[in-house]
Structures are given as C-alpha cells and as structure tokens.
Amino acid sequence: EIILAIETSCDETAMAIVKNGRELVANVVASQIESHKRFGGVVPEIASRHHIEQITVVLDETLAEANMTMDDIDAIAVTEGPGLVGALLIGVTAAKSLAFAHQKPLIGVHHIAGHIYANRLLQEFSFPLLSLVVSGGHTELILMKDHGQFEVIGETRDDAAGEAYDKVAKTLGLPYPGGPYIDKLAQQGKDTFHFTRALLNEESYDFSFSGLKTAVMNTMHNAKQKGEQLSSEDIAASFQQSVIDVLVEKTFRATREYKVKQLIVAGGVSANKGLRKRLEEKFANEEVELVIPPLHLCTDNAAMIGAAGSIAFQQGHRAELDLNANPGLSLEKYAKRNKNIPS
Ligand code: ATP
Ligand code: MG
Ligand code: FE
C-alpha cells in the first residue's frame, strides 16, 4: 500500500510517501529553525503560522517528488500527538481534509511510535526488541514484543536528554537547537569535569538529566565568579560523556535482561556522533543487532509516520473524520487502542 504521511507536531512541516511500510518514495521536511532561533526555542504561535503557510507547498512538493497524484495514495497517516496542540492541529486538519476530499482512509499515529518505526525503513524488525528513544521531549526504554505494541520499561524522571542538551547549549551561548553544537564541541574536548552519572547504579531503567544540567550550570557560574576561563570544549565533552555513559550502560543492561534480538535507537539525539560511536563499540561483540537511523531520519520527519502508519493500516486501525489533535497522547494508550482493533 502507498501511504501519504503528515507530521507537524513541533517545528517541522513534513510530508512523505511510504510504500509497503518500508520503502521511502518521497520525503520533504520544511524546517522552521531559522524563525525560532532568535527566541532560543520554539514559539508555539509562530510554529502554527508556519505550518499553515507551508502545508500545501509541502504537499505539492511531496507528490511531485514521488511523481504521483492523490489517486495513487491508499491512505493518509498523520501525527495526532504528542506535541504542540496548535501545531498538531494543522497537520490533523490537513489530513482530514485530504481524506474527506479524496475518500481515503485516515490513520492517527503516535509521534514516538514514528521515531521508532523510522528504523523499519532500514531494517525489518525482529521481536522482542528494545528501543532507546532519545529526543527533545522523551528519553525512554521501550520493549516491543510485536508490531504496534509498546511497553515503557524506563523513562526520564525530569528532563529529556535533548532538552538537557538544549539547555546546556543555551548556557554556553550556543544557538538553538543546541544538541548538534555541543556534539561538535565535545569532539574537541575531554571529560575533565566528571559530572554525576545520575541513577547509573540504580536498578531501575529510569533516567534523570536535570541534576547534570544544574551541575554544568553551577560549574560555569562558579568559574565566572572567580574570573576563571573554562574550556567550552571540555564542558561539552564532560556533559556529553555523562549523558552517554548512563544511556549506553542502562540500555546495555536492558538488552541483556529482556534478551532482545534488536536494539532500535530513535529520536533527535540519536544523531549524536558520540552516542552512535559508543553504542557501536558496546554492541560490536553482542548478539543483539544494533539499528540506528541515518541522520535525516533521526530528527522529526514524516517518513517515520508513514512507516508506523503502515503497520496500523495493516492491523486494520482507522481514524474517523472526528480525529482530533491529542497533545498528551501516551504510547501505552496508543498501543492499547491498536490492540483493541481486530485486523
Ligand atoms: P519529541 O520527539 O520528544 O516530541 P522533538 O520532536 O522536539 O521531541 P526531535 O526532533 O526528535 O525532538 O529531536 C530534537 C532534539 O534532538 C533537540 O533537543 C536537539 O538538540 C537534539 N539533537 C539533534 N541533533 C543532536 C546531536 N547531534 N546531538 C545531541 N542532540 C541532538
Ligand atoms: Mg524538531
Ligand atoms: Fe520528535
């Protein structure tokens, strides 16, 4: 089947066409980063306005890239949540309008299910699998025993990894979003500060990054008061090392405990060079197969929504035209809903 997918949960207006859940036919992402940069973060009203301006442009571009018309499309998948309500609404409204006008089935997709399924464009899933989701708003370890089924076995108790990256970057005076800038600086520095490795020795698979963020800020503040000049490279490297140590170690333990066949890495922070390298080293001699998306599928895109939407479509899940934006939709609720629908 051929799915047109729409993603507008944050500051990317994105559409894609995905064939049979695994083949990417077209992928268009209109980023708004430049418009939000001077505010140091995403401004919801500005995001919504951009989505409105971009959505038909992106649709035309996506169909043109695929050399298709709406007649070629079998179903429309859209991110229904979580995300910014005003931003989600633009995508959901566009999807409903297209579904109604062209009489196509409609599928609501969870944004994080999308991040995970981006990997299925590379590699077929084999269950049970573990997914490490590290994004701007989420840091979770998710166990999947089957398609569409998500069990959260660990999550952050405060900041998400990407959020910590962006906040620390701001303190260092780096542009938004700061993740890629810290990543770059970190490669030129050393872990000289040895910041805390939060919850590393706890048995749970939960994470915590707000203490680390505060430790970095305090270190910089104290140095400033003493008139000392700290190396941004070493700060970045020390922060990144702490994040990676905890992420990789806890993920490693979970792959062993749950005896998974695959480790699927997902979300914007999976673009991090240091994290990718450490995961590759750690799992080089393990039986579990490591799957990490290419850089353009790590951050927000609609290809991932098409990939997740394809599974929901095949499982018989359909949304009605009263589908609404669902800014707080949990992965577990989404999984339960998928389960209730006979295929
Ligand atoms: P969510 O998916 O949880 O709703 P989101 O959609 O805003 O949040 P993503 O688009 O998946 O998040 O990822 C964006 C995040 O990824 C930002 O916090 C950004 O700083 C971070 N990021 C991107 N590239 C890198 C990198 N190379 N190193 C570290 N972080 C990165
Ligand atoms: Mg984004
Ligand atoms: Fe995202």
TrEMBL record:
<dbReference type="GO" id="GO:0002949">
    <property type="term" value="P:tRNA threonylcarbamoyladenosine modification"/>
</dbReference>
<keyword id="KW-0808">Transferase</keyword>
<feature type="binding site">
    <location>
        <position position="179"/>
    </location>
    <ligand>
        <name>substrate</name>
    </ligand>
</feature>
<dbReference type="InterPro" id="IPR017860">
    <property type="entry name" value="Peptidase_M22_CS"/>
</dbReference>
<feature type="binding site">
    <location>
        <position position="300"/>
    </location>
    <ligand>
        <name>Fe cation</name>
    </ligand>
</feature>
<comment type="similarity">
    <text>Belongs to the KAE1 / TsaD family.</text>
</comment>
<keyword id="KW-0479">Metal-binding</keyword>
<dbReference type="InterPro" id="IPR017861">
    <property type="entry name" value="KAE1/TsaD"/>
</dbReference>
<dbReference type="InterPro" id="IPR043129">
    <property type="entry name" value="ATPase_NBD"/>
</dbReference>
<dbReference type="Pfam" id="PF00814">
    <property type="entry name" value="TsaD"/>
</dbReference>
<feature type="binding site">
    <location>
        <position position="166"/>
    </location>
    <ligand>
        <name>substrate</name>
    </ligand>
</feature>
<keyword id="KW-0819">tRNA processing</keyword>
<dbReference type="InterPro" id="IPR022450">
    <property type="entry name" value="TsaD"/>
</dbReference>
<keyword id="KW-0012">Acyltransferase</keyword>
<feature type="binding site">
    <location>
        <position position="115"/>
    </location>
    <ligand>
        <name>Fe cation</name>
    </ligand>
</feature>
<feature type="domain" description="Gcp-like">
    <location>
        <begin position="23"/>
        <end position="306"/>
    </location>
</feature>
<dbReference type="GO" id="GO:0061711">
    <property type="term" value="F:tRNA N(6)-L-threonylcarbamoyladenine synthase activity"/>
</dbReference>
<dbReference type="GO" id="GO:0005737">
    <property type="term" value="C:cytoplasm"/>
</dbReference>
<feature type="binding site">
    <location>
        <position position="111"/>
    </location>
    <ligand>
        <name>Fe cation</name>
    </ligand>
</feature>
<dbReference type="GO" id="GO:0005506">
    <property type="term" value="F:iron ion binding"/>
</dbReference>
<feature type="binding site">
    <location>
        <begin position="133"/>
        <end position="137"/>
    </location>
    <ligand>
        <name>substrate</name>
    </ligand>
</feature>
<protein>
    <recommendedName>
        <fullName>tRNA N6-adenosine threonylcarbamoyltransferase</fullName>
        <ecNumber>2.3.1.234</ecNumber>
    </recommendedName>
</protein>
<feature type="binding site">
    <location>
        <position position="272"/>
    </location>
    <ligand>
        <name>substrate</name>
    </ligand>
</feature>
<keyword id="KW-0408">Iron</keyword>
<comment type="function">
    <text>Required for the formation of a threonylcarbamoyl group on adenosine at position 37 (t(6)A37) in tRNAs that read codons beginning with adenine. Is involved in the transfer of the threonylcarbamoyl moiety of threonylcarbamoyl-AMP (TC-AMP) to the N6 group of A37, together with TsaE and TsaB. TsaD likely plays a direct catalytic role in this reaction.</text>
</comment>
<dbReference type="InterPro" id="IPR000905">
    <property type="entry name" value="Gcp-like_dom"/>
</dbReference>
<keyword id="KW-0963">Cytoplasm</keyword>
<feature type="binding site">
    <location>
        <position position="183"/>
    </location>
    <ligand>
        <name>substrate</name>
    </ligand>
</feature>
